[in-house]
C-alpha cells in the first residue's frame, strides 16, 4: 500500500487518506471568531441561569460538521457482505445495526482522550440516518454530526439545563476546549438533553456495586436510584475518577487487543454481558432464522465503556459449534482503528475479523458499562426525570 508523508505533522499514512488528513489541520478562517461568539452565547445563557431560545439558535447556526473519512456505501454494508460470505461456510447468525459512520481519533486532534466523543459521533450518525424523530431534535435539526468542540458545547448546555448534576459538578460545567476524558454518563446526558431516551447499564462484581451508578443493595437488573455524587462523579464515571489520582497519565485510548488486565472474575461472568447484548439486538420483534443469516436490526449501536477506553458495538454474531456450544462475537467499531484500514480489509475480505470481532475471551475487565437509546422523544415530566442518571446493574 503506497504511503505519503503529511506536510504539516510529518505523519506517514496511506496516500488515499492524505487529502482527508491534511484538511483536518486547517480551520475555517473565521472559525476562531465563531468559537468566540459561541463562548459568549453560552456565557450569556449561564449568567441568566438558563439556555434561552435565542442562545440555542445562535449555537445551531455556528456549529460545524465533524470531519471523518467517508466510505462509499458505508462500512456496515461492506461488513454485511463479508459476514454473508462467511456464513456460507458455517452456521453463524449475525445481527447488525443499520448505517453507522466510523469516526476515528486523529493524531493531531484527539488521540489519547477523544474516544468517548468519537463514539458519540458514531451513535449520532446512526440516529440521523435511521430515526426521523432524532434527526428533528438533535443539534437543532442541523441534520449532521458536529465536531468535538461543538459536542462539548452541547454537553455544557445539557449541564446548564440540569442534566446529571454530579457530572456537571465534577467538571464545574466546563469542558469545551479541554482534553478531559468522558464516559457513559456524559454520553447519556448529551442525548437526554435533546429528549432522547438514553439508558445506562452497569456490569460488574457484586462486591464493587457501590462504585457503580447504582447504589448498594439494589435489585440486580432493576432500575436504581441516582448515583452518589461524591463516589462516582466525573469523567468515564467510576473509571477515571478512581484512576486519575492513582495512575495519572497511565491510561489512554487504545484498542482492546492492546489493553491488559489481570483481574479474574467468575467464569460465566462475561457471558452475562454477551447475553444482554444478544437480547438487545435480537429484540422481541426480530425474527432470526437460518434463511437469513445476517439480519439488520432497528436497534441503535451501543456505547461500550470499560476502564481506559470506549468503543461502539454495532452487532453480535453467534456460531453453533459441533459440540453443541454456541460461540459469540461482539462486532465493534473502535475509534483507535483507522477507517481506511477497516474499509480496505473489508473490501478484500481479509484481516477485518481482528479489527472488528471480539469474542467472550476478550471480556477481561472487571467492570463494563453500556449506553443504549430507546426510540421516541421524551417531554414534560419524563424529560425532567431524565435529568437524573440511573442505571440497571447486572452482576458479572
Question: What can you tell me about this protein's structure?
Answer:
- This protein is of the alpha+beta class and 396 residues long.
- It folds into three domains: 1-27; 29-63, no CATH class; 71-395, Cathepsin B, Chain A, CATH 3.90.70.130.
- The chain has 15 helices and eleven strands.
- Strands 3, 4, 5, 6, 7, 8, 9, 10 and 11 form a nine-stranded mixed sheet that branches. It has a two-stranded antiparallel sheet with strand order 1-2.
- The chain is globular, with a radius of gyration of 21 Å.
- Mean pLDDT is 79; it is low at 27-32, 41-50, 214-252 and 254-267.
List its salient traits.
15 helices, Cathepsin B, Chain A, alpha+beta, 396 residues, 9-stranded mixed sheet, single chain
Task: Provide a quick synopsis of the model.
Keywords: Hydrolase. One of its GO terms (molecular function) is ubiquitin-like protein peptidase activity. Helices cover 37% and strands 16% of the residues.
Largest sheet: 9 strands, mixed
Oligomer: single chain
What is the mean predicted local confidence, pLDDT? 79
Shape: globular
- The CATH architecture of the largest domain would be Alpha-Beta Complex
Q: What count of domains describes the coordinates?
A: 3
CATH T-level topology of the largest domain: Cathepsin B, Chain A
- The fraction of residues in strands falls at 15-25%
Distance between the termini: 43 Å
CATH class of the largest domain: Alpha Beta
Report helical residue fraction.
25-40%
Low-confidence stretches: 27-32, 41-50, 214-252, 254-267
What is the H/E order?
Answer: EEHHHHEHHHHHEHHHEEEEHHEEHE
How many H/I helical runs?
15
Number of strands: 11
- What value does the Rg take, in angstroms? 21 Å
Amino acid at each position: 500500500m503506497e504511503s505519503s508523508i503529511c506536510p504539516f505533522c510529518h505523519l506517514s499514512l496511506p496516500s488515499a487518506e492524505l487529502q482527508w488528513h491534511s484538511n483536518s489541520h486547517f480551520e475555517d478562517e473565521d472559525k476562531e471568531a465563531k468559537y468566540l461568539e459561541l463562548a459568549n452565547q453560552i456565557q450569556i445563557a449561564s449568567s441568566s441561569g438558563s439556555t434561552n431560545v435565542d442562545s440555542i439558535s445562535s449555537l445551531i447556526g455556528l456549529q460545524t460538521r465533524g470531519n471523518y473519512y467517508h466510505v462509499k456505501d458505508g462500512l456496515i454494508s461492506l461488513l454485511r457482505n463479508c459476514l454473508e460470505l462467511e456464513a456460507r461456510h458455517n452456521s453463524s447468525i449475525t445481527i447488525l445495526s443499520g448505517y453507522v459512520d466510523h469516526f476515528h481519533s486523529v493524531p493531531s486532534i484527539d488521540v489519547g482522550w477523544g474516544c468517548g466523543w468519537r463514539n458519540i459521533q458514531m451513535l449520532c450518525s446512526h440516529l440521523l440516518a435511521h430515526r426521523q424523530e432524532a434527526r428533528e431534535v438533535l443539534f437543532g435539526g442541523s441534520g449532521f454530526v458536529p465536531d468535538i468542540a461543538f459536542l462539548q458545547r452541547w454537553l455544557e448546555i445539557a449541564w446548564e439545563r440540569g442534566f446529571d448534576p454530579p457530572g456537571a459538578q465534577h467538571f464545574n460545567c466546563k469542558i469545551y476546549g479541554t482534553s478531559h476524558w468522558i464516559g457513559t454518563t456524559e454520553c447519556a446526558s448529551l442525548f437526554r438533553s435533546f429528549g432522547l431516551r438514553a439508558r445506562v447499564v452497569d456490569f460488574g462484581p457484586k462486591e464493587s456495586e457501590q462504585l457503580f451508578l447504582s447504589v448498594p443493595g439494589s435489585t440486580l437488573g432493576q432500575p436504581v436510584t441516582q448515583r452518589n455524587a461524591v463516589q462516582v462523579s466525573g469523567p468515564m464515571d467510576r473509571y477515571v475518577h478512581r484512576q486519575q489520582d492513582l495512575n495519572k497519565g497511565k491510561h489512554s485510548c487504545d484498542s482492546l487487543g492492546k489493553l491488559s488486565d489481570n483481574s479474574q472474575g467468575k467464569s460465566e461472568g462475561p457471558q452475562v454481558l454477551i447475553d444482554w447484548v444478544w437480547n438487545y439486538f435480537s429484540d422481541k420483534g426480530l425474527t432470526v432464522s437460518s434463511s437469513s443469516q445476517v439480519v439488520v436490526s432497528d436497534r441503535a449501536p451501543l456505547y461500550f465503556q470499560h476502564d481506559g477506553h470506549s468503543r461502539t458495538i454495532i452487532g453480535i454474531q453467534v456460531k453453533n459449534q459441533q459440540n453443541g456450544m454456541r460461540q459469540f462475537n461482539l462486532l465493534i467499531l473502535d475509534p483507535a482503528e483507522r477507517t481506511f484500514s477497516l474499509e480496505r480489509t473489508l473490501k478484500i475480505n481479509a484481516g477485518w475479523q481482528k479489527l472488528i470481532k471480539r469474542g467472550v475471551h476478550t471480556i477481561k475487565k472487571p467492570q463494563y458499562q453500556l449506553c443504549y437509546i430507546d426510540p421516541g422523544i421524551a417531554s414534560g415530566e419524563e424529560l425532567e426525570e431524565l435529568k437524573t442518571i440511573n442505571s440497571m446493574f447486572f452482576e458479572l
